[in-house]
Amino acid sequence: MQQKKSMTGNRHIRTALQVLSWMAGIACIVYAVSFLVKRSYDIMKKNTETGYIAKPEPVVTDGKMTPEIMLSLGKVSDPQVSPDGTLILYNVSYTCIEENRSCSNIYLCRTDGSQKQQLSARAESISNARWCDGGRKIMYLQKGQIWLAELKLTKKGWSMRNEEQISDIPAGVSEFSLSPDETRIMYTSRVKSNVQKPADIYSDLGKADAIATDDLMYRHWDHWVLEIPHTFVAGINLKSAKPKNIRPDNSTDILAGEKEPYELPAEPFGGIEQLSWSPDSRTIAYSCKKLAGKAYAFSTDSDIYLYDVESGSTVRIVSGGGYDTNPVWSPDGSRLCWISMERDGYEADKQRLMVAEIGWKTSGGSSGARMPAMENVRDLTEGFRYNASSPVWSPASDGIYFNALAEGLQGLFMAGVTGEGGITRLTGEDLWYDFSSPFHIEASGKDTTLLASYCSMDFPTELVAISVSGDRTTLTPVTHENDAILGQLKKTVTEARHIRTVDGKDMLTWVIYPPEFDENKVYPSILICLGGPQSTLSQGWSYRWNYRLMASQGYVVVLPNRRGTTAFGQEWTEQISGDYCGLNIQDYISAAKELKAEKYIGKMAACGASYGGYSVYYLCGVHGDLFDAFVAHAGIFNEEHMYLTTEEMWFPNWDNGGLHEYEADLDGRHTGPAGDGETFGGIRQGGSPWSTAEAAKRHYANSPHKLVTNWHTPLLVTHGGMDFRVPVDQGMAAFNAAQMLSLIHISEPTRPE
């Protein structure tokens, strides 16, 4: 904690301590996880013999949500409907605070939520559970290998029988997907990258701990890139599956023969959704960025490929532009859809929903290989303001369901593929939830029922049935995993405010009021500075920054969707690029001023992570006396150093001022960062500290570290040592600067009992 040196004397120290007393709640939230691992709490029940983490049954006597209560909630994920459409297989994860770990097990219920039961009770997580053999068996991952089990219905309910490990992959399996005809399986594992250890060069240096590389992308997000993901295909016979029969020697690497060890799926967050089996099981569509080193670091140009399983041949069918991801075959196999960005190098470009007809022809020559022919490529979201995500085909192959962040809510939409097409919003703006794309669709005439997951700022993810009939939408909860705990808590209230910005625009700002809010009382408040910077404050639930938890500690929580957020059209999103120090900072100030004018708001802190940390550091130097405390987690402090130490270079190169490089050429395409081969080894770096672009020069001239002499407000800095996106020295530099400027150090806040 910091206080400016000029505030000397006991009176000023007492004032600082008073400010810090109410900041302790904020610090408790930020430090919650590190505190929680130090002691055991009665709210967690654990079988000490097996290590199984049971569902906790805490008793909340005061109605107050705490970090312990939050971590006792079950995390529902990965729902899968049985082949006959009657049952849902899904995972629930619970946390043991004492052991600082969580464990996921398999659950089963009917599609209406009835007859719920727990299928597994393991000490080590089970994940990726999938139906097979007509619903008589399931496959799943445990201990990094694929397992197969029979499902038996007894008088006591469903049970897993004759469990067998059917893979033996030394590097482990991350995810898998069974082909529609159930004769093949594709799975992801790890292979060696181009980054070397000393022993890779000199065999007698096996104990040397170092990294050797001569290119970029040697670390990514939170790990050194010694290995990368690849996807493999192997044959399988579910009727007579042999133990450990899926092995490296009978598996085929989809990327075999490539010159570089490209990633499939893409790091750091890509998964099996980047690959899709065709309905006839003969072809795999996949997304891949076939670039390495500097080219990989500066480009977002991933393409769509078709892999022929029999011949092993690959054909690229979509190329150029930015990200092309998430290919999905239509159920009848006649079409392919995917998510696409137009501009290379811009990770926040509009996400378009593309579709094309896929035909086949036989190539000449002795091989007679099938060759794809793609026709009628079109953007189904051309007139749609928002970003399409996670497409799911209708059973009749005539429409595509997807989710999109729209005006502060993640809603469900349907795009018609045939006829006049068009986009229909299925969940209205009055439904304050974030919905995922459906995992099951049943259509009967004009009535459709979607099974999906949803959440809000009030509750974590649960499964829900969404019935759509004409213009009427009805929600019916399917799972109630956390009702017993949440029902004991006092409720917070969320308000949607529209705040006027300095340039006369309306900004959606969520405001969460503490339980039993009384406008005649005075409350401390927290203004959240969003990371990204291109992301959105919607109705999502988070275990990292949980706004209900903050409000339950007695704070009014203010969540401005400032410039750069992604749910209000592309113009609102793109304004922030090249203007970090500009309008979005003024948006925060506008929100803070409006809320502080309310009689029930007392002191206010600004808190944020990543780009939100940048915002906190910048506000520290320009806010005057608007804020009373600051919390920065993993924040950008020195922009010049950030450019030289982060890993995904396309992001700062664009956002820091390199936008001028992306003007369309004569063919209407965007040149992107590959450049003309004349500057910096062919990689354009218009957003670099040495750029001559005016936007870049302005950006670096306004780096937060240049404002530290204006700092005079208590500041808490936290930063993770394995953060390679915003490296830890950014946080250390901010802390050190505050110390060297002789800001008074206030002792660490104590944890409330």
From TrEMBL:
Establish whether keyword Mitochondrion is in the entry: no
* Pfam families attached to this UniProt entry: PD40, Peptidase_S9
One annotated GO molecular function: serine-type endopeptidase activity
Q: Which UniProt keywords apply?
A: Hydrolase, Membrane, Protease, Serine protease, Signal, Transmembrane, Transmembrane helix
Chain ranges passing through the membrane: 20-37
Residues annotated as domain Peptidase S9 prolyl oligopeptidase catalytic = 541-658
Q: Which domain of life is it from?
A: Bacteria
Q: Name one GO biological process term.
A: proteolysis
Official protein name in the record = S9 family peptidase
Record organism: Candidatus Cryptobacteroides merdigallinarum
